[in-house]
Write a structure and sequence with these properties.
The chain is built from 3 helices and 9 strands, in the order H-E-E-H-E-E-E-E-H-E-E-E. It is of the alpha/beta class and 203 residues long.
Length: 203
């Protein structure tokens, strides 16, 4: 049985990653005991390959990939790019982890490269980020919605997507099928009623 190597310190890992990526690393930050690397969209694929293959990195597994919408970050004070993809990588052989982030350069049409050819576990994660955030993964060979319905309109994890949605569906007895129609729910604010009892719970 082969045991993984003891982990290096977080600061050592950050230095190794910064050295391996060089100018491809826009930033390498350590916070809460975790290393986060940000790269430009044009360097995303080459940086991913280096993180997978380089000595001192060896991140063989993609554990998670998700989309992020920064449009309301810091209560509207943030003025950077809106859409981001965050990838969480694991090195089994070196017993270490890293977070890789890339921002989509166009807020109106967010596109980044697919890393499915580097880590095939990215397949459904990228489909989920496409479905929920509308981020397009260039090079993905089957980029379809995965959680919402085929006829769904919009991307429900975007900050500007209404909580009630745009349409609702119901079964129509006359047409004998499910139909879509505009949302009929009226937005309202519900304030809970507080009930106080003097002897609540027999105390």
């Amino acid at each position: 049985m082969v045991l993984s190597s003891p982990p290096v310190s977080v600061s050592q890992l950050g230095e190794t990653i910064a050295s391996v990526l060089g100018v491809k690393a826009k930033s390498v930050k350590i916070s809460l005991g975790e290393v986060t690397v940000v790269v430009m969209a044009g360097d995303y694929l080459s940086a991913a390959v280096l993180l997978r293959d380089a000595e001192g990195c060896k991140f063989e597994q993609l554990m998670d990939l998700c989309g992020l919408d920064y449009s309301e970050y810091k209560e509207g004070e943030y003025d950077g790019l809106r859409y981001c993809v965050a990838v969480h990588l694991l090195s089994v052989s070196l017993n270490q982890r890293v977070r890789l982030k890339v921002f989509c350069p166009d807020d109106d049409f967010p596109v980044v490269d697919s890393v499915n050819g580097i880590w095939n576990s990215a397949n459904w994660f990228e489909r989920e980020a496409f479905d929920l955030y509308g981020i397009v993964f260039q090079g993905h060979n089957d980029l379809r919605r995965i959680l919402t319905d085929y006829g769904f309109i919009g991307h429900p994890f975007r900050k500007d997507f209404p909580t009630t949605g745009h349409v609702e569906m119901r079964y129509d007895a006359e047409q004998k099928r499910v139909i879509y129609q505009p949302v009929t729910i009226e937005p309202r604010e519900i304030t809970p009623r507080v009930i106080r009892e003097d002897n609540y719970g027999g105390l």
